[in-house]
Structure formats: C-alpha cells, structure tokens
Amino acid sequence: MILTGPEICAAAGDGRIRISPFAPDQVNPNSYNVRLGPTLLTYTDPVIDAHRPNTTRATTIGRDGYVLRPDELYLGHTLEEVGSDTFVPLLFGRSSVGRLGLFVEITAPIGDIGFHGQWTLMLSPVRPLRVYPGMKIGQIMFFVSAGAIEAYCGKYQDAVGPQPSRYWHDLLGAGVS
After folding, report:
1. What is the mean pLDDT of the chain?
2. What is the CATH number of the domain that holds 26?
3. Where are the annotated coiled coils located (predicted)?
C-alpha cells in the first residue's frame, strides 16, 4: 500500500516520516518531491575498483548551474533529509527531469526502514544538461510494510551530502580482500 499525499503530510506531522526541511507544496498525490543539493561527486580514478575505496572530486553547483556530461557518473544528493522508522521509502526521478534525459536513480531506489539522512543520487545524463541547486529532481514514495521491522543501522546512516560507494566495506566483514 502506498501513502497518499494527505497521509504523507499526516505522517510528517506526527513523526512517522521525517522530512527536513518539509514544504507542503512539495507534496504530490502519492509522493514527496525532493530537491538537488549543492554538491556533486565524481570518481577520479580511470577504473573504479569495487574492492577498495575510490578517490572522488567534489564540485559545488553554483547559482548559474552546472553542466552534467554524458559518459560520466555524478553522485548528487537530496537537499532534504528523509527517513522513516515505519514506512519503506522509494526514490525515483521526476518525469519532467527524465524528459530532459537525466537518469536520477540508476539501480537503487529503495531505502531501508530506519535510514535517516540525505539521499545520494546517481545522476547520468543522456546528453549535456545544466542542473541547478534546489531544483526538484526526484520524488519519494512511502509504502506500508508487513512483518517485524528491523531498523537500518548501516554504513550510510545520517548521510550528509553525496556518499561514494562503500561496497568494499562489506567485503571486510566477509573476509574478502
């Protein structure tokens, strides 16, 4: 079951959903619009290695925007901190942004119950595209869960700004080197 706009407002009001900052005009019939934060990360190594940390370069998007280039992966972030200890959040790009040729969330739209923080966005443009800080870039929907809840307490908890992959971190616990 998906939450409707009025239920998102009610849940944000009583704490079942946390959105900061919350703006009623960003509520849709069954989702909440999130905006692009001011920081982008790009990987700087010629080959990204899943078994180790990779170096990144941070860029601040200015008032005049920033041109995203094809064949580059940009890690952006939501301006809002969003999370819930009750509902399962899913993030998707807005259709108006998709129609500009921008993939906003390539492979990981589902958030975990109990995650709270800014969401990292995987941005990939089809052709050069100028983006701006604060532009409405995605929408989060909230779904009712069934069964016992085990709250997320992983490596991206309380994220601020875009987070590079920490896949390698999972390998440490598995004894893989």
Report:
1. 92
2. 2.70.40.10
3. none
